[in-house]
Amino acid sequence: MSFEPLASDFYGFESLLTEPEQEALGKLRAWLESDVKPIIGGYWERAEFPRQIVAPLAELGVLSFAWDETKPFENSSVFRGFVALELARVDASVATFVGVQNGLATGAISICGSQAQREEWIPKLASGEVIGAFGLTEPLSGSDSAQGLRTTAKREGDEWVLNGSKRWIGNATWSDITVIWAKDVEDGQVKGFIVPTSTPGYSATKIEGKISLRPVQNADITLTDVRIPHALKLEHANSFKDTAKVLKATRGEVAWESVGTAVGAYEAAVAYSKERIQFGKPIGSHQLVQDLLVKSLGNITASIAMVHRLSVLQDEGKLTDEHAALAKLYATTRMRETVAWARESMGGNGIVLDYDAARFFADAEALYSYEGTREMNTLIVGRAITGKGAFV
């Protein structure tokens, strides 16, 4: 199958991928266009997740590309970034599901788990046999998770007892396991645990009324004397610094997803500009509409350049927290502008699902906030610039 780069990749960054990477990306793109794009609007409106797509995602390797235990071929962080872009270009909720399953849940086990934990859980997560979630954020703790976690873990012999609550946990209404981060009452350090969701005392309730990422099944989680064996404590998750290792790796992926969301809105606006007739001609022939489209393409191109370099640094082992933070805050800010311009270019039609821009416009708000707000990522970069922390 010949690979055709996206027109919205204006400077041709996709041409830098290897042939196997291009082939895999092309297969994913074709499947998303044929099987996901036609149905996702309805699922978004109903706030349901299309669970039937999990098996095809696994078969395409999307849930396994990153991990040594399961990846089907040698691939780069740049390629995996383009996968995130491709998913979000069709739907940000699908991209978020993959980010939670493959990045946060599997990533936590890969980065912080023992060899035995990796061997047991990563293949199951990669095949979709097991659905994972990542429980860090709490009702009273979001940006201050490093110090503010209230969920506790207490060691009792060969068991740990977890108590507390979590909020905004993606996939959590139907996950089989959730990686729970809790503060050890003995030493005050944040530690990670693989918690089967069937464990007595664990409950998850869907958060209703969202205006963004509606198919993502976010949940409030309550942990009441949840007992798990010591074997399910992540061996190398012994402080928030270990949690941060997972977030650093996934924050870059969210930046790529943000670019994909901008691309999806931009492409919808371009298509609309060629079809919508006003004053006797397509609106794409009007200067003001072209101005919005060109500004959007500029945002997208600059953002691709940044996240591409970010992924190269990751492959080279040079990625820092401030690198990931700058990419996330920049890409999401430019995305927010771009989806607004796409919606604007459609006039009243921009607020209905029929033309896609409304969905991307709404979903951008969630990406702008999760995995570190713009303000918190700004402070991470600001500390790197000045050597002074300004978080409180």
UniProtKB/TrEMBL annotation:
GO MF, any single term: acyl-CoA dehydrogenase activity
Superkingdom of the organism of origin: Bacteria
Single GO biological process annotation from the record: fatty acid beta-oxidation
Residues covered by the Acyl-CoA oxidase/dehydrogenase middle domain: 133-226
Every Acyl-CoA dehydrogenase/oxidase N-terminal domain range: 19-129
Domain Acyl-CoA dehydrogenase/oxidase C-terminal: 244-385
Tagged with keyword Protein biosynthesis: no
Keywords: FAD, Flavoprotein, Oxidoreductase
Pfam family, one: Acyl-CoA_dh_M
Keyword presence, Lipoprotein: no
Cofactor(s), by name: FAD
PANTHER family: ACYL-COA DEHYDROGENASE, ACYL-COENZYME A OXIDASE
Family as reported in the entry's similarity comment: Belongs to the acyl-CoA dehydrogenase family.
Protein name listed in UniProt: Acyl-CoA dehydrogenase
Annotated organism of origin: Agromyces seonyuensis
